[in-house]
Amino acid sequence: MTARAAVRGLVKRYGERVALAGLSFTLEPGQRVVLLGPNGAGKSTLFQVLTGLFAADEGDVEVAGHSLRRAPARALAEIGVVFQQMSLDLDLSVRRNLRFHAALHGLPSRLADARIAEDCAARGLGADLERPVRELSGGNRRKVELVRALLHRPALLLMDEPTVGLDPKSRRELLTAIDADVRTRGSTVLWATHLVEEADGADRVLVLHRGRLLADGPPPAVSSALGGGSLEDAFLAATA
Ligand code: ADP
């Protein structure tokens, strides 16, 4: 099967400091992949490269077969992102926030409106479409951001520490919504976190430490590869 995304030999330095040290991996369709790393591991740097915010010093990324270096517009059109910081306009309604994003991606307005109605209803936001985002809870704002990230039906969804500031119930709902999308649409999700419990139920865990992969596989295999015990014990010992 063709990979959804391929990261090939990424190197990124900040002066003397190496943030990504020749990082390579591929992502397959229909998986939630957790990128687990302690602070400073290189997660944000990787996401900044993947979202085209800056170029790596070496290496390339392919998304749905498009090279980020040679065809950046095509590669980026296949990516959806939920950023760590809330990034909605608080004064605009949910519908207007979503329409704005759809227009940026060139979605015809009838198609956009149909997807907005359907996707919001599926996530329990059907009654909130005309409300300003300011009136929504943190958990529902995150759900709007998820709907927004998926409106253009990207091949690859990036979630950058998406549960920061969410209560446990909202965190669980977000994970459930993501897993549903992975199962029903076969989307590929790369979920960055430093929270080991978010690797529970993931199809695959990539453990990032000092810009390199320490382990890669389903959660039990990763625990074993890192020395055994619980995933949390193994992760803390390996990244100490
Ligand atoms: P994470 O997101 O996993 O916490 P980062 O990608 O933010 O990791 O950081 C990776 C490494 O690069 C760290 O050593 C960090 O100190 C360094 N770094 C990140 N951003 C910068 C920057 N703008 N200037 C210098 N060093 C940076």
Describe this structure in words.
Residues 5-235 form the ABC transporter domain. InterPro entries: AAA+_ATPase, ABC_transporter-like_ATP-bd, ABC_transporter-like_CS, ABC_transporter_ATP-binding, ABC_transprt_ATP-bd_su_PQQ, P-loop_NTPase. It comes from Rubrivivax gelatinosus (strain NBRC 100245 / IL144). GO terms for molecular function: ATP binding; ATP hydrolysis activity. Keywords: ATP-binding, Cell membrane, Membrane, Nodulation, Nucleotide-binding, Transport. The structure is a single chain. The chain is an alpha/beta fold and 240 residues long. It has a domain at 89-153. Helices cover 35% and strands 26% of the residues. The strands form two sheets. The chain has a six-stranded mixed sheet, sandwiched between helices. The protein has a four-stranded antiparallel sheet with strand order 2-1-4-5. A hairpin with a 2-residue loop joins strand 9 (204-209) and strand 10. Helix 3 (94-104) packs across helix 4, helix 5 runs parallel beside helix 6 (168-185) and helix 7 packs across helix 8 (231-238). The protein is globular and about 50 Å long. The chain binds adenosine-5'-diphosphate. Adenosine-5'-diphosphate is lined by residues 14, 17, 19, 37, 39-45.
